[in-house]
């Protein structure tokens, strides 16, 4: 079907205005019709400035396109190159459609192109921009065009095209070497498959008819019943993205794999762009691990002050089955809570609310028999005044919004803001820039008693569960809030001494790594054959991890320009122990091969020491290497370097020394792993001489 739809683009296509006409210049068909090669000369009206066309002396440009269809192998290869100005500009494009090796109901679509402008009357930069614009625009219309012609075929009564089978004369030979496969239905090309450049690659689920129930579990294949019951309506492209991202996590992430519903939230937050969704999901998984968020409901009890004065709580569900959270913000003393508890305790409490929301969504999915992936929040602003605009309180609110937006995307189904007073626009102006556009669309704001009229609360919540303080009949157990007694206020020093900060309530330490200023940790070993273990996450930038040994102790860190020094920054400490006058090989030696770690990766490893003395673990800024043949940086390296601002990296790390006797019988600890979330390949580094192991798995 897809090929038949594709062929209708010729000799011209109304959906591509620049495609004026095409002529067949060469065509070949094999006797068994398995091979079909057709070459066309295409006439294009490029959207370029009139002056440029006049200088170039042309109104149209011509391309040659060669399509090679192999029905036996089920492949289609498309090649195109420019005929016009071929001595000045070289354009090559290649597309291929192939059957996925692991699933014959899937089609792999790959497209790439190259542009080389040798000279063009001094307008080289302009031509490059025009080419990029035209190419990107045409790729994005690919899905729309295919769907247009598929619909046209359906209107003509053509809904199925049988798969090619060999003629009777050569049937036995073909059936021996090419076993028959199920028919592959139409290809669905997603808009999000294209990228901001001259390449795009997507693997697409192409099943256009209901699939038969599978005997496997949802972990090996998503069947129709599972999707309908737990995930909701998914297009083939969306299902494809979910399966691929989950498979990538299973192959690369050594740790708890998120449920499909959670992965789907991140995909939806980025319009099913896999690369973007993978990036924010990996950052969130690293964040959850560093701050032990998975255990917050089981290990943390909110302080009594929060239980008494935080005017929020869960209250039944809305008409769509979403859990309903009620927040009486106008009755809450935000200033008092911040002064009594600190910003970090409030943040932790909000995180526990979100974790509880995820749990309730799962429960409601089972209760209602349909997917419930988000909750509704009802915010009552009755009583909101200038006290709520206290600057530290607003600062805490903005930080909470930032953390929630980054780690709980697509969890807010609807936000009902009731009884908004005149001061509300001021607060909204402050916080709205920090809220995602998709989230803002879910806000419904009612002033005064407007929520009681048409289009109000009754449209979203059953009358029986409207809280009593909003004129309903249901008793709401949400605390009424009120002013926090000043006797409960604490100083900043007291809050810090009580160690309630979320980021420091962990065994991990934070460190900053600068260009030219690595971070180093000293470990003294008394007994040889001890085991040094490490576990660190690269939160920002790329770093090189080294292990050194010295017989003498380095000098304590000093804040001077000559020797070792220490730097304290908001993102963590930076300590340098190796003196600048030390020489590698004389004063200290390297006992491990350097390990390059990419941003987002999580690394665990161990080193069995051979000598007593002083071992130094070092995290050093990774500078992008130049290309060996041209001494110029590669494009990927340049793009990666742009993501690291101010030549600064950040790591969260934990180290421990274990006696070798405690390590015996637990070889899995020695194998360790580097379980991060980088897409880039990395190899296992193992040094038998130093009896160490450190594995990378993205």
From TrEMBL:
Q: Which SUPFAM superfamilies match?
A: CRAL/TRIO domain, CRAL/TRIO N-terminal domain, Supernatant protein factor (SPF), C-terminal domain
DNA damage: present as a keyword of the record?
Answer: no
Where the record annotates domain PRELI/MSF1, the positions are: 1-158
Bias (Polar residues) occurs at 202-214
CDD domains linked to this entry = SEC14
> Which residues lie within the region annotated Disordered?
171-220
* Family annotation (Pfam families): CRAL_TRIO, CRAL_TRIO_N, PRELI
Q: Which SMART domains does the record associate with it?
A: CRAL_TRIO_N, SEC14
Q: Keywords in UniProt for this one? A: Cytoplasm, Golgi apparatus, Immunity, Innate immunity, Phosphoprotein, Signal transduction inhibitor
**BP GO annotations:** innate immune response; negative regulation of RIG-I signaling pathway
Gene3D superfamilies of this UniProt entry?
Answer: CRAL-TRIO lipid binding domain, GOLD domain
Q: Which GO terms describe its molecular function?
A: RIG-I binding
Its quaternary organisation is:
Interacts with RIGI (via tandem CARD domain); the interaction is direct. Interacts (via GOLD domain) with SLC18A3; the interaction is direct. Interacts with SLC5A7 (via GOLD domain); the interaction is direct.
The job of this chain, per UniProt, is described as: May play a role in innate immunity by inhibiting the antiviral RIG-I signaling pathway. In this pathway, functions as a negative regulator of RIGI, the cytoplasmic sensor of viral nucleic acids. Prevents the interaction of RIGI with MAVS/IPS1, an important step in signal propagation. May also regulate the SLC18A3 and SLC5A7 cholinergic transporters.
Q: What is this protein called?
A: SEC14-like protein 1
List the source organism: Junco hyemalis
